[in-house]
Amino acid sequence: MNTTGRRTRLRGRPDLHTSYAQELTLFDTRAKRVAVAGLLVVALALPFLLTDEVLQLLAVCCVAAIGAIGLGLVTGYAGQVSLGHAFFLAVGAYTAAVISGDPDGRVIGFGITNIAVWLPAAGLLAGLAGVLVAPLATRLRGLYLAIVTLGLVFIGQHVFSEWSALTGGAGVGRPAATLEFFGQPIAATGPLGTRDQKLYWLMLLLLLGFALAAANLARSKVGRAFTAIRDRDIAAGVIGVNLARYKTIAFAVSSAYAGCAGALLYTITGFFDPSSFSLLLSVQYIAMVLIGGAGTISGAIAGAFFITLLPRFTRELQAWVPFLSAQPNEVPNVFQVETILYGVLLIVFLIFEPRGLFGIWVRVRNYWKAWPFSY
Amino acid sequence: MTEPSAETVPPEIPAATEAAATTTSSAGTPAGVGPAGTIAVRVRDRALATPDAVAMRGKDRGIWQEVTWAGYWDTVQTVAHGLLALGVQPGDRVAIHAENRREWLIADVATVALRAMTVGLYPTNPPPEVGYLLSHSGARVLVAEDQEQVDKALEVIDDCPDLERIVYLEPRGIRHRYRHPALLGWDELLALGAEHRAAEPEAVAARMAAATADDVATLIYTSGTTGPAKGAMLTVANVDFAIRVLVDGGGFTDPPPGPSDLLLSYLPLCHVAERIFTTWFNAGAGVQVAFAESIDTVQANLREVQPSILFGVPRIWEKILAGVTIRLANASAVKRWNARIWLGVADRIAGTLVRNGGRHTAGTRLAYGIGWLFCYRALRVRIGMRRVRYAASGAAPIAPDVLRFFMGIGVPMHEVYGMTENTAVATGNRPGRVRLGTVGEPHPGVELRIDEQTGEILTRHGGVFAGYYRDPAATEAAVDADGWLRTGDVGEWVDGTYVRITDRAKDIMITAGGKNVAPSEIENALKASPYVKEAILVGDRRPYLTALVGIELETVGEWAQRRGLAYTTYRDLAEKPEVRALVETLVAAVNAGRAPVEQVKRFALLPKELDHDDGELTATQKVRRAAVADRFAELIDDLYTRRSARSGAGEVGAMGGAAESGARAGAGEPGAGAAG
């Protein structure tokens, strides 16, 4: 009996899988394809609808999403809690800045301003750093791993604030990488659009690429090994998953994502100093993953947007709540509200919706999926 | 409905062979090899015409593996050569003891290609029955599915002198462990076949060319509710007649089934009904067949396959209905409320459909269209009937309420009637001409009459079987000299052309008061409730009617849970006074509107589930009344002797939920009973 192994599915019978390829398809139903395409069209059209200021914020969101996806891979998919994400962001940011920096400036720089060079290099070097850290992860798990990666942040912070030839020193900083593609400045106001419009498009497309790559990784053998390790590392080892190998891959890929995100993040503002890479940054990324929904790509993206847009929302809040002040030296002020809101949201999500924003979506979807039954 | 082929059957021809000769000449099979288009010829022609189209699907490690017509036919040839190498001669019997799967059809078609007879065994048959069937049929080769079936065969192999080879499909647990000389793996058979095919490539084709209309294609053992199973011989001509009437002629579906239709095969293939839908719809019309993983996964497989043609026995429809009822009862408030509204609308739509013979009016179409958005579409997707364009119930009587439910939610439901001995060709409700409570109109080319004295239904056509295997006495009793087959069912004409079945002739009860009662109607009214799995009426030569009721563990268990009733086993649950009260309301609802002699005066709950292994059910899950009466004699005696408060005619409406379901079971009361 020779079988056909048809890869396309039968019309109108979404559950009739005739090959494994069908079950692994990223956008398997027409509804999903239509929704993603619609979302993409809206996202690409946004620069014509929003002000530059908002677009810049959205560009930051896109970059943060790349970083969050990276953390999602190691923490959400492979279950290795890492508080060291800020360190990898820093490695990426400094690698890119050094490569594209001015050779004659006061800080180290090689003057290679091509994004095609510094972006991969940032990812590569951060990934290498991840590989160096990975042996820790293969020996430790859970809380212990979190503590050890926490140490990484402090070591990093110390090195970066002391090594002023590289970073410009604490409180001073250095210019970020230059956005240029083979001599062509990418983000510069011109006849095609303003700097922020182009910036947004660039970051959106990069996010799209990184997200698709991560989704593809997650549905591959590697991704399945990640989830097996997350669900029970001993069981995964017993069924033949090489723990050391896949934990290393998880850290390498995650750090590479962080490196790229770090390299891109500060090109938007153009300048950064070593105090940015504190524990708070790591916690922020953890929050993105948790609030968005651990173990999902779209959740990480949603979480990144949510956390990055939160300060903006609290500032808008001021218009509605008159006793809030916009001055940091008055009480109560929006920055305090922001911090409180931040903590409250984390607590609320962890208690009531541990699967994050994605969990809410899953719940809504399941409600209609089971219609007219409840299960 | 025009039916050109039907006119070619001369009604006055009594002998099956002559009728077959006429039928086949007009059948117009593409490549008329020999006088008859056997199913092997049909499969070969499909493989030549559409080699890459999908013939069937079987689920293997979570994937529906597709088999093309070319692949199907190629394997059939190899297997046929393998059987040739094993020495299978024309007229030999090849038994198949497996769940529905691809190899079942392949072995069947290969056997027919060799002019041998296929004998199907029910997977649930216990060893003694396997021994009886194998020795009675004198099967030379047995195709057994797995270790379980091989064990059964090996247990009785000494009583089956004709059995030479046991071909097993699943090597797990057999290979390298069993050393019996008769054992042969399926892959070994294929290798044997490939070798034989290389040596004599034309051997199978030569056999096929020699096929005649009188060749017996299959032995179908009737389930035997009363005595040992009898093997009905269906000839090539019978099968061809059935395919022409039911498949090519569109005897069931309109338009006729075709290669774009999908079908789920899940009922035992040794039963004539599933054989029609699976093997003959497949070979005859090119319908794509998907094999369910097992009878327990039918609902999940239905959801995946979403077949366009669906046949079920009443038990299946009742079970799906019970599942819907329970899941709706457990849904959240909004969903429950939504479902109540739209199922109410569905009931009204069904009422109109019933009055109109199954055709929509503009009003019902509009109501259905709105309901489709809110409920019916999703509901049909969940129960796997989104794409069903023709659904049929047969093989046993069904309560009209159950059919009404499915008609209401938009599943075009048709009750059909036939039996093994007439190749299941007798009557059917035609699309657009449905009459609820009847089994429809005789198919074109079918002669059907009702005996004036006994009320027994008689049929005569090209599908009447060639006789019981090795049992001429029984054959003589079943078919008279003029070729009329006595069906053993008592029925009557309704509106001139429709047939209503009262009951099996031998099941009709005469109470001590001299009243004739047809038990199946009352039993089915009871079984229409989701809480009742079995209902067996007692009352023959008794002063009044009583019933043995078996509860449905799943639904009653759920019902008990919702009320916080703790229970341990089936027996414990059945003995709860609350459950008794629930059944009491159901019985009272069924009694309402019936003449006193037709009311169930008392009932008892069965302390266990009826089982094939205990001999209480046949392989087709039909109740063996004698065995049940014997086993539960004490229980029945109690119903007629003890004067206790445990009377069946309790008050209705003691409990909210019970009253609700009771009302549903009581709604649409089937007509007032049997002839008295």
TrEMBL record, chain A:
Annotated signal sequence range: none
CDD domains in the cross-refs: TM_PBP1_LivM_like (cd06581)
Chief localisation class: membrane
Cell location: Cell membrane
Transmembrane spans: 34-50, 56-74, 81-101, 107-136, 143-160, 199-218, 249-272, 284-310, 331-352
Protein name (record): Branched-chain amino acid ABC transporter permease
Sorted UniProt keywords: Cell membrane, Membrane, Transmembrane, Transmembrane helix
Entry-linked Pfam families: BPD_transp_2
Source species taxonomy: Bacteria, Bacillati, Actinomycetota, Actinomycetes, Micromonosporales
Membrane topology qualifier: Multi-pass membrane protein
Residues in coiled coil: none
Superkingdom, natural source: Bacteria
From TrEMBL, chain B:
Record flagged with keyword Lipid metabolism: yes
Source taxon at top rank: Bacteria
Keyword Ligase: yes
Stored PROSITE patterns: AMP_BINDING
Renumbered residue ranges of the record's region Disordered: 1-35, 650-676
Record's keyword terms, sorted: Fatty acid metabolism, Ligase, Lipid metabolism
Pfam family, any one: AMP-binding
Gene Ontology molecular functions: ligase activity
AMP-dependent synthetase/ligase domain span: 44-469
SUPFAM superfamilies (UniProt xref): Acetyl-CoA synthetase-like
Composition bias, Low complexity: 657-667
Catalytic function, reaction form: a long-chain fatty acid + ATP + CoA = a long-chain fatty acyl-CoA + AMP + diphosphate
Similarity comment text for this entry: Belongs to the ATP-dependent AMP-binding enzyme family.
Descriptive protein name: Acyl-CoA synthetase
Organism: Plantactinospora endophytica
